[in-house]
Amino acid sequence: MALKVYCDPCTINSRKVLAALQQMNADYEIQYVDYFAGEHKSDEFKKINPHATVPAATDGPNLTLTESNAILQYVADTTGAETMYPKDLKKRAIINRWLLWEASAWFPCCYVYVIENFVKPSFFKQQPEQKALDAEAPKFHRYAHVLNEQLGRTKWLTSDTDVTIADFAVAAPLHLYTASKIPLDKYPNLKRWMTEGIEQLAGWEKTQGAVDKVFPRQDD
Ligand SMILES: N[C@@H](CCC(=O)N[C@@H](CS)C(=O)NCC(=O)O)C(=O)O
After folding, report:
1. Closest Cα to atom 14, ligand 1: which residue?
2. Superfamily name with CATH number, domain 3-79
């Protein structure tokens, strides 16, 4: 039975998983959960993911996974995607630290920009809450500075040679950076990694169409 990914392909953490799975040539099927219709909050979906967030995944009757980064680790291991998630424990530990940081700090910070600057005005005809954006800005700049320094040292997040699941994890919260008014221009290495690195990857490109369908691109 193939891996089933419950997701809305236009959302950050779903796109993260789908792009990385494409990059790894993983075998999976999509079970669409309409985020904007609130299907992730339905009782039926909460049987799969009681946290009511997308994505989630099942692999047969005995494994249900939530947390996008846990899905990436599992699929990288089961498909044997050695360069995306090396078995070498030191390399793996470095990837794990970025995955944990992304889930606990970077995603929640970028999500404020996505929700306030893009989702609220575009889909709910609401004004962005400036107070929320102002509260997040110092964190964003602190985090982006660290990423910018790292990406001045290495081409990809953890090495010069190999893109890993950490790159997909950390890139995903930026996937709507223009529409979300995420100030990438101040961070040239981060912007270069995003535009000349991540956006050129086959896995990223193959998952762009589903995003564009929901959020037609303005000129960058
Ligand atoms: N740490 C979780 C976060 C998942 C998450 O928050 N997903 C967002 C979409 S990107 C969501 O479903 N939010 C629920 C909501 O806004 O009600 C993961 O990595 O899977």
Report:
1. 53
2. Glutaredoxin (3.40.30.10)
CB of 16 shorter than 6 A to ligand 1? no
How high is the mean pLDDT in each 10-residue block of the chain (220 residues)? 92 98 97 96 98 98 97 97 97 98 98 96 93 98 98 98 98 96 96 98 96 74
Task: Give the residue extent of every domain in the chain.
Answer: 3-79, 89-214
* Per-residue H/E/C for 36-102: CCCHHHCHHHHHHCCCCCCCEEECCCCCEEECHHHHHHHHHHHHCCCCCCCCCHHHHHHHHHHHHHH
Query: Which listed CATH number (2.60.120.10, 3.30.70.260, 1.20.1050.10, 1.10.10.10) goes with 89-214?
Result: 1.20.1050.10
